Amino acid sequence: MMRRLLFTTVMAVGLSVGAVNAQSVNDGSKALYYNQLNKAKNIFQDLVKANPADAEANYWLGQTLLEDENVAGARAVYEKALVATSQNPLIIIGLGHVELLEGKNAEARAHFDAALEPTKSKKNKKYGDPVLLAAIGRANADGGSTVGDPAYGVEKLTQAAELLPKDPEVMVNLGLTYLKMGPENGGKAKSSFDAALERDPSYARANYRNGKIFESQKNAAMFVDHFTRAIEADAKYAPAYLSLYEYYSDKDVNKAKEYLDKWIQNVEKDTEIDFFYADYLFRAGKYQESLQKVKEIETSLKDPKDFAKVYRLQALNQDRLGDSLAAKSTMEKYLNLENPLKVPGRAYQEMAGYYIKTGEEPAKADAMITKAIDLDTAVENKIALMEGLASVYEKAKLYDGQFKWMYQASKLKQKLNATDYFYLAQAAINAQQYLTADTIAQKYIENYPDQIQGYSFRVRALTAADTDTTSGIAIPAYIQFNDFLKKDAQKNLSRILGNSGYLINYYANVSREYEKAIAVCDEILALDPQNAAALQTKELLVKRIKK
């Protein structure tokens, strides 16, 4: 579920709320904006306890539970509040929000329309109450791309934005909803986030969301800049610190630690802090210390499912400490416990690696990497996953698997560069797929005719394919290689001589084409007139012809 870091605007839906109560609701929504969920929950629970008919407090209590991914708890709050508030429209929308997350789109839409319709006045026949419009939009902005009705959400948020011209939250939710409609709407999303900053330059969430767009595009310079802007706009905005920590965690561990410390200073003290500190220790190469911290977290858990990701970090530490069997077992535990929607593709890649390292059937590793690939929509990430698994297969000397995944990765690339051809041909030779290696080498030569490696790979592949030199399939490759080497014959003389020896042996002893063998000797003597081996071989061949 996405993080809904909400604006601190107090919502009023035809309610009579006292100044003290309004401030308390404002305090609760502010805590929610900063992701201080326990503080927010306590504020709203106290308000509801004091006045069960307080629609705003009930609505925000439900939103806090949704932020904590407690959909069932939010439903219970809204169902109870429907009675206590005499079916206040804001509560009806909250229930519709829950239904969207439950996949009940039709029921949710019915609730949204039912809540909004009575608020339409002669002055504003098309829209309705702007606060309700914003709440409907927020609901449709929540969750992944398959949650809600983005087109409907854009419609309601656009209307809310017109009626709430100073509210930045509406614009950020509009941007998030555009993102649900596909990457082609990234420009509209960014424009919405920029518009939020025009409304309130201190609204750090807008800069943060801009950063997430560039992060998805792998544009490090831009996303670091926007995350930094978020912090400059609001030094208490913790998500930006965490994103910067995650970026620097495998690049500059000291800088990462600075951002981690800042994040810890601005969030509630809970298991999450211990987890990220253990993550930092892992990134810093302190695997034993990290593992110890992970075990402390595990011991404190009431239910392993509540914090399953701790087992993934445990497996990573076990692997780095050389215990791949334990890592495999722990990672399997993680995958069994974790909500599949929360499992990152990288975890399946790691599981694939453990299967290979521990000698499991390659099919298990391939199944894991296929899951990782299916989860990632970016082509470059799919390529990276495939090449990463190929590297693990190579280290395990399982060359069939290495070539299989390198070849799959190559098919996703628009154009192979020389390095791609080099490693692909090498992998095919490692896998003893010699004729395939020759085909790759020919493509290498076709695209990069001035580079020696393509010619060399052809000779290596076809020589290996014809181990007893009886078929002669490598002869054209040797001739082609020598023709290339003769462009700088003196520099390449030793290689030319080696290749010529293979040709002479085939012509003299296999195909009995003595004239061709003599012609090769003459080519050698033209480059090296005193070459004793060529002189002697030619003499013997001439005698053989005379006989």
TrEMBL record:
InterPro entries: TPR-like_helical_dom_sf (IPR011990), TPR_rpt (IPR019734). Pfam families: TPR_16, TPR_6. Residues 1-22 form the signal peptide. Keywords: Signal. SUPFAM superfamilies: TPR-like. This is Tetratricopeptide repeat protein.
